[in-house]
Amino acid sequence: MQQLTVNLDDRSYPIHIGSGLLGQVELLAPHIAGRQVCIVTDDTVAPLYLQRLCQTLADYAVVPVVLPTGEAFKNWSTLQQIFDALLAARHDRRTTLIALGGGVIGDMTGFAAACYQRGVDFIQIPTTLLSQVDSSVGGKTGINHPAGKNMIGAFYQPKAVLIDTDSLRTLPAREVSAGLAEIIKYGLIRDRQFLDWLEQHMPALRELEPALITEAIARSCAIKAEVVAADEREGGVRAILNLGHTFGHAIEAHQGYGNWLHGEAVGAGMAMALELSQRLGWLSEAEQQRGVTLIAAAGLPVTPPRGMLGEDFKRLMAVDKKVLDGQLRLVLLKQMGEAVVTADFDGQALHSMLAVAGR
Ligand SMILES: NC(=O)c1ccc[n+]([C@@H]2O[C@H](COP(=O)([O-])OP(=O)(O)OC[C@H]3O[C@@H](n4cnc5c(N)ncnc54)[C@H](O)[C@@H]3O)[C@@H](O)[C@H]2O)c1
Ligand SMILES: [Zn+2]
Fold this sequence. Notes:
Layout: E1 2-6, E2 13-18, H1 25-28, E3 36-42, H2 46-56, E4 61-67, H3 76-88, E5 96-101, H4 103-115, E6 121-126, H5 129-135, E7 140-145, E8 148-155, E9 160-164, H6 173-190, H7 192-206, H8 210-230, H9 245-255, H10 262-279, H11 285-297, H12 310-317, E10 330-335, E11 338-342, H13 347-355
Parallel strand pairs: 2-9, 3-4, 3-5, 5-6, 6-9
Antiparallel strand pairs: 1-2, 7-8, 10-11
Helix pairs in contact: 5-6, 5-8, 6-7, 6-8, 6-10, 7-8, 9-10, 9-12, 10-11, 12-13
Bound molecules: nicotinamide-adenine-dinucleotide and zinc ion.
Residues 42, 44-45, 48, 69-71, 74, 101-105, 107, 127-128, 130-131, 134-135, 138, 140, 150, 167, 170-171, 175, 178, 262-263 line the site of nicotinamide-adenine-dinucleotide.
C-alpha cells in the first residue's frame, strides 16, 4: 500500500492507494467520528461494491443511498435524495458521509457533506480511474447547472481518500481511457519525465497492469496534492489542472451531459490546447504531435465533435469559471511539462483554430 498526504494544515488528509483496501476497516475507522455512516453510491456501483463496504462497516449504523447513475443526474433533485435519507434516518452532525463511486458520486457527496447541517465529515472511496487520480483529491465538490458544468458547489475537503485499485477490474474500457486523460494532463502540465513514462507504458496501462496502474495513480495524486496544497482555492497555480477543460466543458455542455465522457471531452480539449500552444509558437509541431499521439494512444478523441462550430465554443466558453471580468483565460503549454494560465494570448490564433472546428 502507498500513502500520500494532502498538506492543508489542520485539514490535511491521507490518500491510501492499494489492493483490497475496501475490506480494511482500520483505514476508515480513524476518520469516522460517531456511529452514523451514510454511504452514497450509484445504481451501477451498488451491486458491485456496496455489500462489501457495508460488511467492512458492520460495527456502524450504516444508511446506504443509491442514486441513479450518470452525469445527467448530477443536479439538485438527485442531491436532495441524500438529504432526504440523512433526515429520515435522523443523522446528526457527527455523521460521516462516504462517497463510493466515480466523480459524479464524489462531487455530489462532498457537496452534500458541505451543506448538511452546515458541514459534516466525508470520506472519498473513488472507484473509477478518473476519480482515483483527480476528482477525489482536492476538495472541489458540486453539481451541474443546465447553463454550465459544476457551476454550483463548494470547496470542501474529505477526511481521507481510499483508493482500492481492485475496483478498476470492473471498469469499462471507455472509462479507463477517460481516466487516462487526466493522467496525461499531469504529465503535460507538470512532469515531462512522467510523460515519457506514459508513452512507454500506455498499452499496459490501458490493460490495467497492476504495478503500472498503481504507479500512475500515485504519481498523479502526488502532483494533484502538491498543486492543491499550494493553492487550495484556485487563486493561481491550481488553475493549471484545468488544461483542456475550458474546451472540454464546452464540448460536454454542447453534446448534453453524459454523452461525451468528461475524460473524452478533456482528451479532445487537451488536443485543442496543444494546437493553440503550437499556433502561438510556444510548442513545436513535433511536440504538439507527440502530445496528440499520446492522447490518441489512450483511446481518446483528439478532435471536437462533428457539427460543433467555433461559435458554439465561444458561447459556451464564455461561462467558464476561469473567465474573470469578462476576459477568457486559458491553460496553455509554454513547453511540454510546463503550463501557464493566461489571458495574454493572440486572440486571432484562437479564432483561426475555432474557425475550422467541427467540420
Ligand atoms: N472534483 C474535481 O476536482 C473533479 C475533477 C475531475 C472530474 N470531476 C467530475 O467527475 C465526474 C466524472 O467522474 P467519472 O468519470 O468517475 O464519472 P462517473 O462518476 O459518472 O462514473 C463513470 C461510470 O462508471 C461507473 N462506475 C464507477 N465505478 C465503477 C467500477 N468500479 N466498475 C464499473 N463501473 C463503475 C459509474 O456508475 C458510471 O456509470 C464529472 O462530473 C466531473 O465534473 C471532478
Ligand atoms: Zn477533469
